[in-house]
Every structure is written in structure tokens, then in C-alpha cells.
Specification:
Layout lengths: L1 H4 L4 H7 L2 E14 L2 E7 L4 E7 H4 L1 H7 L7 E10 L5 E12 L15 H6 L1 H7 L1 H23 L3 E2 L5 E2 L11 E4 L4 E5 L4 H9 L4 E9 L11 E10 L3 H20 L3 E4 L2 E4 L5 E4 H8 L4 H5 L1 H11 L8 H13 L7 E4 L21 E6 L2 E8 L4 H16 L10 H8 L5 E7 H9 L18
Parallel strand pairs: 3-5, 6-10, 14-15
Antiparallel strand pairs: 1-2, 1-4, 2-3, 4-5, 7-9, 8-9, 10-11, 11-18, 12-13, 15-16, 16-17, 17-18
Length: 454
């Protein structure tokens, strides 16, 4: 209704007297003798309503005061503008719709308690219209992603959420048990290995907007249950994935926000092409305080990583470099930056970079210090893949419970031939954080995981 009549002038409305029937939740009431103004909202738009005793009759007018703040009502009448220009419904009749049995939070202060906002998201949506707007934006993000890949010939698929071997990422899984099969299963940490099985089977372009689960810490950028977009394209590599990512994000921001830049915190993020491309080692030299001699001191790098992460000591040189990057470097990557060629040791599913035995043909996209995407030139050699899995198993035996397990069925799939393939995962929650200008992932997940109350 607001979209249809919001631009009409006072004189136009007086002449046309458009009739409307509007349902909504009562948010405020202001009585003025035998007339009352009140506001109702459908969760998106708030509109003023005017009810007069001489218009609806004394009995109906007095019945209106049986309603409480928070109740749902449907009003019918004509539209006009008040002296202050506010679009208003002149009530001719009304109906009860639903009862609110609990008082809403105090109207002037809204709902400020973050804990309550997350636990009782329905209250957050009622009291904070900007929260509802963020979730509508998130829905539009997902719709755009689906449309983008559908238009380019990708097939949307679904892969198992319960897996016998949790693969596709270096992460600790959640464990469950299937009674009928009497076997432990794992909630997926990523759909990657199943999606690549489909490429082996001849599905050259596939994608999945998936829920994944990682049994790890909770902070502003991590929730144990999260949403990813993963896509795989045969006959491509990580360079093609960089080009696609620039096109995807640029189009998404223009479509939803109307330009090539958007605010995030104190920064303005630009998605104009090309994004910066920075080698992992160059980033550590520029921002991490490491020089060529430091890289050659592998034991020293591991000691430094242990000092920076004493609760999660890195066991290998590659893991230590990854820790140093997290602690010292990523906060400097504000504008979209492809961090390319990280250590192969922490990239067990990626090909080696061309001309290197230590670096992976892989990139991570960082925006405002936050990892948004991860992509590889996928490893296609089954012998090399098994060796990588066995190396990871060795690290697991030493106590690294985030190492990748051996998946012999996936190795067998590679033996049937995986064509050169580029693959990528993009964090949908973090993408919604960026476009919605939210600094905490719980602001863009309707029902984030919280510690149970007693």
C-alpha cells in the first residue's frame, strides 16, 4: 500500500479517496478525546491509522480500546494525508486478528539487549525494523547467487549432510550415530568432495548453497552452523575463479545496493575490477614482519606460531605461517584482495602452483580483514591426492584434529578422471555481513547457536 500510494499528494488522495484494507500489529496509540491515532506495522512498513467515534460509532470506538499494544488488527477505510503530510488510513471498520499475550519492550528504547535479540529473534524483528531489513537483504543475496549460476549453465545439486568421512576442509566435525546402521556419521564440514565426484561423473558445472557444520569456536566471524555457496567448473583453474568472483561480486553489489561501493564500518569497500592480487609470502613480508631469512628458519617460524597461538599450537611450518598470517596480516587487507599461493601443506585438495613445489594454486579472498572466499585449481592426480591425505593423517596422529581424514572412495573417484577444474566456496553469512554493514555474524543468522539457559 505504501508503495502504491506513498507518492500521491494530499489533494490527489482527497479527490480519489482510495479504499484500502490493511492488517498489522499495533505499535503505538495516541488518544485525543473521541478520536485516536495509532500506528500499525506489517514488519516492514509502519502506517498511521485514524479512528473517530463519529465515523465508526460509539460501540465500535469503545471496543477498539480492548486492543493492547502488540495485538494484530485489520482496518478498512480511505487514505488521506494529515496536516503534517503523513499517509493515514481513516477507519470505517476494523477486525481483531490475533492477540499479543506478552507486553512488547518499551517503545522508546526498543530492544537493545543483544542476548535477547538473538534468543528471541521474533522480538528483534518486531522492535527493530533494520534487523528485518538485513534478513531481507540476505534473502536477496541468495536469490541473486542462484540466478547468477543458473544463467551460466550451472546445475544446482544437493549433497549429503551426514557423511561417513568428513572431508572438504581442515575442520573438526560434529559426530552423530545412526542406530539402524550402528555406525558413527559426521555432519559435513564442506560439500567439496561430493561436488567434485559429480564433475568426475560429467556434470561440468555444479553448485550448492549448503549448510555446513564445524565443531569449533564461536566469535564475530564464526558460527558452528553456517551457509556456503560452493561451485565447480570443469576446464578452468583458480585464475578463472578470480575473474568469475570479480564479476559475481560486482554484479551482486550493483544489483542490490545500486553502485560499485558500499560502507562497512568506517571503510568504504569498492568492488570495481580488478581486485588486488597479493602472494601469501609477499603479504607476510609486507605486513607480518618476516623476511627471506625468517622464511628459511623453519623451526623459528614454528616457534613464532606457537607463541601466537599457545592454545592451538601449529605442528607444521605451513600451519605456523597460517597462524602468523591470521594474527598479523589479514587485518590489513581491507579492500577486496585475492591472497594467492599459500603453502601447499595447508591446501591438501589443491594443485601445486605452477613452477613451485611448496605453494598451492589457490586463493583466499579477503575483504575488511575477513576471509570471504576460498578457491583452488583442484588436485586431479589420485596418487598425489592419496599421498596428501596420508600426510594429513600423520598430522592427525600427532594431535592435529583439524587435519583432513583419508577418503579412499574419493581417491577412487579421481581414478576415473577429474578434468582440470576450478572450485570455490563463498561464505554467504559473511557476504550478508558485508552488504548489511554488520560486524557480527549473529546479526545475519536468524537463529544463531547460543549456550542453553538453565
Amino acid at each position: 500500500m505504501a508503495a502504491e500510494f506513498g507518492a500521491r499528494s494530499k489533494e490527489d488522495l482527497e479527490a480519489a479517496k482510495p479504499r484500502v484494507r490493511v492488517p498489522g500489529r499495533i505499535l503505538s496509540v495516541r488518544q485525543m478525546g473521541r478520536a485516536t491515532f495509532f500506528h500499525i506495522s506489517d514488519g516492514r512498513v509502519k502506517i498511521q491509522v485514524y479512528i473517530r467515534e463519529d465515523a465508526v460509532g460509539r460501540e465500535a470506538y469503545e471496543r477498539f480500546f480492548l486492543f493492547d499494544i502488540g495485538d494484530w488488527i485489520a482496518v478498512e477505510g480511505t487514505l488521506f494525508r494529515t496536516r503534517t503530510g503523513e499517509l493515514t488510513v481513516m477507519v470505517e471498520s476494523f477486525q481483531f486478528v490475533a492477540k499479543c499475550h506478552r507486553p512488547l519492550p518499551e517503545k522508546w528504547h526498543g530492544l537493545q539487549d543483544v542476548e535477547i535479540r538473538y534468543r528471541r529473534r521474533y522480538l528483534d524483528l518486531i522492535m527493530n525494523p533494520e534487523a528485518a531489513a538485513v534478513f531481507r537483504l540476505r534473502s536477496a543475496v541468495v536469490a541473486y547467487l542462484r540466478r547468477y549460476f543458473d544463467e551460466r549453465g550451472y546445475i544446482e545439486v544437493e549433497t549429503p549432510m551426514m557423511q561417513a568421512v568428513p572431508g572438504g576442509a581442515l575442520a573438526r566435525p560434529f559426530v552423530t550415530h545412526h542406530n539402524a546402521l550402528d555406525t558413527d556419521l559426521y555432519l559435513r564440514v564442506a560439500p567439496e568432495l561430493y561436488l567434485k565426484r559429480l564433475v568426475v561423473g560429467g556434470m561440468e558445472r555444479v553448485y550448492e548453497i549448503n549448510r555446513s557444520f564445524r565443531n569449533e569456536g564461536i566469535d564475530a566471524e564464526h558460527n558452528p552452523e553456517f551457509t556456503m555457496l560452493e561451485f565447480y567448473q570443469a576446464y578452468s583453474d583458480y585464475n578463472d575463479m578470480m575473474d568469475l568472483t570479480e564479476d559475481l561480486l560486482g554484479g551482486l553489489v550493483r544489483d542490490l545496493l545500486g553502485g560499485d561501493a558500499f560502507p562497512y564500518g568506517d571503510d568504504v569497500i569498492s568492488v570495481k575490477r580488478p581486485f588486488q592480487r597479493l602472494k601469501f609470502r609477499d603479504a607476510l613480508e609486507r605486513y607480518g614482519g618476516l623476511d627471506a631469512r625468517a622464511f628459511d628458519d623453519r623451526a623459528g617460524v614454528i616457534r613464532l606460531g606457537e607463541e601466537m597461538a599457545p592454545d592451538k599450537k601449529p605442528l607444521t611450518y605451513g600451519r605456523a605461517l597460517d597462524v602468523i598470517f591470521d594474527k598479523r596480516v589479514k587485518r590489513h587487507l581491507v579492500q577486496p584482495t585475492f591472497l594467492i599461493n599459500p603453502p601447499k601443506e595447508v591446501s591438501p585438495l589443491a594443485k601445486a602452483a605452477l613452477g613451485s613445489t611448496d605453494e598451492a594454486a589457490r586463493f583466499e579472498l579477503f575483504v575488511s580483514g575477513m576471509e570471504l572466499a576460498n578457491a583452488f585449481s583442484e588436485l586431479t592426480d589420485p596418487v598425489e591426492q592419496r599421498l596428501r591425505f596420508e600426510q594429513q593423517a600423520g598430522e592427525r596422529a600427532k594431535g592435529d584434529d583439524e587435519s583432513h581424514p583419508i577418503d579412499l572412495d574419493y581417491v577412487q573417484a579421481l581414478e576415473y578422471g577429474l578434468p582440470p577444474t576450478g572450485g570455490e566456496g563463498i561464505g554467504v553469512d559473511r557476504l550478508a555481513m558485508l552488504l548489511g554493514n554488520r560486524r557480527n555474524i549473529r546479526e545475519v543468522i536468524l537463529f544463531p547457536l547460543l549456550r542453553p539457559r538453565e
